[in-house]
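User: Structure please.
Assistant: Input sequence and predicted structure:
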Amino acid sequence: MNGPTWLLQADPILLSALREDISSEDVTTNAVMPTAIPGTVDLLCKEEGVIAGLPIFARVFALLDPEVKVTFFCQEGDAVSKGQRLAVVQGDIRVLLSGERVALNFLQRMSGIATYTRAVADRLNGARTKLLDTRKTTPNLRLLEKYAVRVGGGHNHRFNLSDGVLLKDNHIAAAGGVKEAVAMAKAYAPFVRKIEVEVENLDMVRQAVEAGADIIMLDNMTHEEMKEALSLIQGRAETECSGNMTLDNVAALADLGVDYISCGALTHSAPILDLSLKNLRRV
């Protein structure tokens, strides 16, 4: 998700946000700036964190006016600190004013996710386990939020329901059991698709192994239950643990040796990174 192709995929999201904020005109800006006057404004960081979404920030202004120039003094994934000048935006002051909030909203949200992800990933430092996100994302913002997870040092789970088979509790109930669900998935899904099964107890673990699941997700199990589950699996499937994984408890799981830890909190609970556009001046 790098480069111009990704930015073009994001355009409909950004245009929708701009239309939401400017339904007909920016009344305030048009009142105080009736004509085009060139100017600059600084992007400032107000707290420590990890920056993510710089291409999106710049793209918002470009969609309003391709002549706007953004000069960055940092790169994606950089650690940033309070008071740091991250960029200067130069162009028609009317565009700087009208695009300010939308550009900041995206950048703050994405940087907040990258910051939280980096903190969780650091708790797993040295472990073989990969940190994954989930589909617990803001509707219509998944592209940007999952990108921010990657910038923060995490990895993406499936992007959407078309990406892979994940048999959760309700799928298993609908199919009539773990073995039945896996058999039906194998019969239906293309052979290149891995089949993952969510299990909640050791009996389900045994069934998933016997059914030939490719990945077994240990959901909301205790530490001891997960250790016993891994002994039962014995490397016959990849393993993932999930269920209320947060910055506070993920380090305790590093010793298990699971392949993946999925953490919905990366996207549904990350606070924004506080940023602002200040020091607007005519040039």
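Residues 130 and 260 are 5 Å apart (CA to CA).
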